[in-house]
Amino acid sequence: MKYESVIGLEVHAELKTKTKIFCGCSTSFGAAPNTHVCPVCLGLPGVLPVLNKEVLHFAVKAGLALHCDILPFSKFDRKNYYYPDLPKNFQTSQFDLPICLHGYVDIEVGGKQRRIHLTRIHMEEDAGKLVHSGATIDTSDSSCVDYNRTGVPLIEIVSEPDLRSGEEARAYLEKLRSILQYLGVSDCRMEEGSMRCDANISIRPVGSDTLGTKTEIKNINSFSGVQKGIEYEAVRQAQILEDGGTIQQATRGWEEAKGITVLQRIKEGSSDYRYFPEPDLIPIEVSPAYIEAVRKELPELPDVRRRRFQTEMGLSAYDAALLTGEKATADYFEETVAAGADAKVASNWILGDIAKKLNEEGITMVSIPVSPADLAGLLQLIDKGTISGKIAKKVLPEMWNSHKTAEAVVKEQGLVQITDTGELETIVRQIVAANPQSVADYQAGKKKAIGFLVGQIMKETKGRANPGVVNQLLTKILQA
């Protein structure tokens, strides 16, 4: 490989507060355009902003969880630029004295652990949203502006250029989302824009320490988009250098449908934004006592929970990592086990049948219609021998759609497993008598023939026969 990628990410996470950063307007998603606005967030003359204390609380909490230094003195600044979705013509952000410095996120890619260092975390307000009449701004006759999102609180998490591939960038984002969700400071729903990512990428010859000219891919709203965008941009830059050209520092957009990045504008430097301290907001001072009080609020984080699932519940590293990736899934698993399910069996069902149903319906674990207690009830019916695992796979969709317990579904549909040896032996002998060729194959040494006979018996009993009893009876009859 001739070149290596050098990647840094700027992640904007919308904080899960009820009101905006500097006013009392609601932050709820999906309201009619321009209904969650007021003179403060619209930047009308004569208004004064007041910092929402919960924003500071969440920012400090995120900083501590990400191993940052919390600055005892920080301030807000005005970042000056003009764009239609920015009603004040400046964004209130933090520049030289952010709330958090340094920190790191540990990731694992391809079995290798890597530590991605952070530059900073700062607080800022979000801009509004342009709603284009066409698919993109280039194909639109007009654009409208919805200012509901203006003033929604954000933290921007800026990494060092430690990432080396699109795959690593995706792993970093997934880990960051997981931590923020565990903290309860953001829901990180990329599809709603509450977590967005800008990727800075350059390439350089392998072995070189010199940084190349970077481009920035703006506002990517999916993990796959981040990975694909970075991979495309690395190839694009390499091709330019191979052709004898030079890389232009610029902002580019990711077009998901075409799988390409497109030029948006020549990149500004920090001097172009003419930062200066926000005169309407006093500086922020946090005491050591406040920081320690917030530290005590930190929950069990994903890595710690993953290790506990391995040591206390006997799960594999792979299964534990999948279960703890999202807090809602880990909570659901623990509640299922607490309701009486075996940990390994519960893990298999949650990562298998449950995950498949969630994907089919396009919902997350937060919206699952089967409670942990009801899933535990289903798994206990299997353990008791009341139903087979095969029948359980038919019961789950009924529970999903009807919101009934497994016991109720089994009773209503007569799905109790047949374990009576006498009843089953009669059916087994009928199937054996009806399939002489399979019997002959089995007796000739083709042991797989027994699988066909088991299938016929299960078909005859509509899946209700106890597989263990069936195999015992078949073996006894065929070897008689």
TrEMBL record:
GO molecular-function term, one example from the UniProt record: ligase activity
Reaction catalysis annotation: L-aspartyl-tRNA(Asn) + L-glutamine + ATP + H2O = L-asparaginyl-tRNA(Asn) + L-glutamate + ADP + phosphate + 2 H(+); L-glutamyl-tRNA(Gln) + L-glutamine + ATP + H2O = L-glutaminyl-tRNA(Gln) + L-glutamate + ADP + phosphate + H(+)
Organism: Megasphaera lornae
Keyword terms, alphabetized: ATP-binding, Ligase, Nucleotide-binding, Protein biosynthesis
Assembly and interaction partners: Heterotrimer of A, B and C subunits.
Superkingdom of the organism of origin: Bacteria
Function of the protein: Allows the formation of correctly charged Asn-tRNA(Asn) or Gln-tRNA(Gln) through the transamidation of misacylated Asp-tRNA(Asn) or Glu-tRNA(Gln) in organisms which lack either or both of asparaginyl-tRNA or glutaminyl-tRNA synthetases. The reaction takes place in the presence of glutamine and ATP through an activated phospho-Asp-tRNA(Asn) or phospho-Glu-tRNA(Gln).
EC number: 6.3.5.-
Protein name per the record: Aspartyl/glutamyl-tRNA(Asn/Gln) amidotransferase subunit B
InterPro entries per record: Asn/Gln-tRNA_amidoTrfase_suB/E (IPR017959), Asn/Gln-tRNA_Trfase_suB/E_cat (IPR006075), Asn/Gln_amidotransferase (IPR018027), Asn/Gln_tRNA_amidoTrase-B-like (IPR003789), GatB (IPR004413), GatB_C_1 (IPR042114), GatB_Yqey_C_2 (IPR023168), Gln-tRNA_amidoTrfase_suB_CS (IPR017958)
Record flagged with keyword Cell membrane: no
